[in-house]
Give the backbone structure.
Amino acid sequence: MNEGPFILCDNLVKIHKIADLEVVALQGLDLEVKQGELLGIVGASGSGKSTLLNILGGLDRPSAGRVVVGGRDLLKLSNTALTAYRRTQVGFVWQQGARNVIPYLSSLANVELPMILAGHAGGAARKRACELLDAVGLSDRRNHYLGMLSGGEQQRVAIAVALANAPSLLLADEPTGELDSNTALAIYQVFRDLCRKYGVTTLIVSHDPKIARQVDRVVAIRDGKLAGETVRRAPAVTGATKDQAVHEDHFEEYAVLDSAGRLQIPKELREQYGIKERARLEPAEAGILVKAVERQQVEQAAAEGGQTAGGAAKAEHRGVLGWLKSRRQKSRG
């Protein structure tokens, strides 16, 4: 049994060429996703979220790096193999209902269609279509057309369509973007139920900051790189007695280092502590302290303590580098 990640993105780069311009959508993104995991992906517009989904879904190819899904190195697949992967291994759910379903077909016919195109028409296809519509709570809407369904019901049909050919990966790009909050919660519940029932690895791109309450884990993408991760822990129990007990979600947020050891500091923290172009790293009892450094301090230090061309002055290193040097010297002694 393969115990490695189901999805592995290693130093993933994607550059879009628009006329004579090059736009870097992903710049060295690293990501691992376990099989059967329900993962949320958040980030500002233009951060690279949709680009990542397109690459994982076989709709686009990366410019550099490595992306492996279910043991398949997508960068090495031929166009024919990539088409087969997209058709048999990936299910897509888009924000607009009209993009997910065909309006002149019933809900049942929409779910059957991917199986018919894959050569699985007949009683088995009809049975699975009915099963999926029942799983998303639409068994009584199987003969309804797009215009007869609410926005939430259209997305439920879309999810059933995406799962028609039993994919191993389900990708949803802003599936609740056009829905009200209550309907969005119901759609998230559908994703959770189906992820558990069918074991399909599910990635949901969203602008909703509350998505952490709906998924196993959330990763944040900033400027084409993985910047942070939020993990939901077992609910904490509060209350004096058993009858008064209230289960509260507990979340832990982490900053993420890439394969080169680079760390993104959120803009809010940089502004709060005045960190601009440079920072000093200093060892502290609980870890590493990041301190703001002004340009004037750097220029003054260079003027006062820099070595002359022919001098023998020995610069004293401060911060983490100096600390590491002193540790090495002590170990040799």
